[in-house]
Design brief:
single chain, 367 residues, alpha/beta, Ubiquitin-like (UB roll), ten-stranded mixed beta sheet
């Protein structure tokens, strides 16, 4: 027993010594790293850029300049003064950047790995000029840089403002949440009116429940006068009650009307959001197809506000406009158009028609 106990004690002492050694090495490494960082100057700023598609809206030089002009890097800096988190946040504030990761290596180089957003269309309608990216992000035009993507024109009325930068889906979520909050506030505003209805009913009951009693020494004429006055008060109380009830119910109905109006706006916002998501899916499909990427030159959108989005486009081939109608079943409509290209226009001639409509599923109407 004593031998076994001794072995256990020795084993636990060994574990303790090993743990203490590991901790000492870790602490020593941290101290040496800190001393190294304290004495070492930054060697370089190395930006690595990926993504952005065929026509990226930023490059190594522009991101490098972006970081420097925000005062986050200078050749005279020491490694310990480099704010990696601030560099990442500042790099992400560039609208063309989707993600950023920054760190300092042992040699003293600040490394920033950047993933760019990929533009897939340019929205150029009345008062608007911005890019739509593959992930649904809306970003302003970058000076001295132009992406060769389809241009969107037309009478489309977006949910977002012309100065907006961010995800289109976020505008939809924020708008719906704001309207929901408004609906709830209108519901809360009804409560005082419901209390007024109760008070109005209570006041009428008090008058009705009042009784005129003939006193012991009261004459019939006196009692008659009191009773007639009581009847007049009841009639007057009922009239006041009815008028007040109508007034309160009208106020409640008006709040209900405003709630219904807000719910209708919510439905329109949801529909507009669905339409934009469908447009985004269409643009992604075009961007991922070499044929349609080369074929579609300009996209025209109509709708917005209370109207559903409708889409037409100008192709590179022929002298016609393709009308796809509402942004539903767009993949199927493009497939029908592609078949018509190969089996119809190749035989009939590309200049025969000025308008090709695929507004209705499975139908290609030309004129």
């Amino acid at each position: 027993m004593k031998g076994e106990m001794g072995h256990k004690v020795m084993r636990w002492m060994g574990y303790g010594a090993l743990l203490a050694t590991i901790l000492a090495v870790v602490v020593l490494a941290a101290v040496l790293k800190h001393e190294h960082s304290s004495a070492q100057f930054v060697h370089s700023l190395d930006v690595n850029v990926s993504g952005g598609g065929a026509c990226p809206l930023a490059d190594v030089e522009s991101i490098n300049h972006w970081i420097r002009e925000h005062g986050l890097y200078a050749e005279s800096m020491k490694v310990e003064s480099v704010e990696v988190g601030a560099i990442e946040r500042t790099t992400l504030s560039h609208s063309a950047v989707a993600s950023a990761n920054a760190f300092v290596n042992y040699e003293g180089s600040v490394i920033v790995d950047v993933e760019l957003r990929t533009p897939i269309a340019r929205l150029r309608i009345d008062g608007y000029d911005m890019y739509i990216t593959e992930d649904g992000f809306l970003l302003p035009i970058v000076e001295d840089r132009t992406a060769a993507v389809p241009v969107i024109t037309g009478g489309y009325k977006p949910l977002f403002s012309s100065e907006y930068t961010g995800y289109a889906a976020q505008v939809v979520r924020d708008s719906i949440a704001s309207l929901e909050e408004h609906i709830e506030s209108l519901e809360a505003a009804k409560l005082p009116y419901y209390r007024q209805l109760d008070t109005n009913d209570s006041e009428l009951r008090q008058v009705i429940n009042d009784r005129v009693r003939k006193g012991m020494f009261m004459s019939k004429e006196e009692y008659k006068i009191l009773f007639e006055d009581y009847e007049r008060r009841k009639v007057s109380a009922r009239e006041r009650h009815t008028a007040k009830k109508r007034e309160i119910e009208a106020a409640i109905a008006e709040l209900g009307r405003q709630q219904q109006e807000a719910r209708m706006k919510q439905h329109l916002v949801e529909s507009a959001g669905d339409d934009f998501e469908a447009l985004l899916g269409f643009l992604k499909g075009v961007n991922n197809s070499k044929f349609w990427q080369a074929e579609i030159v300009q996209i025209m959108l109509d709708g917005g506000d209370a109207e559903r989005m409708e889409l037409r486009f100008v192709p590179r081939s022929g002298r016609f406009v393709v009308d796809l109608g509402m942004v539903t079943e767009l993949d199927g409509k493009l497939a029908d158009l592609y078949r018509f290209y190969n089996k119809g226009l190749d035989k009939l001639g590309w200049d025969k028609y000025s308008h090709i409509s695929l507004r209705y599923e499975g139908q290609v109407v030309c004129r």
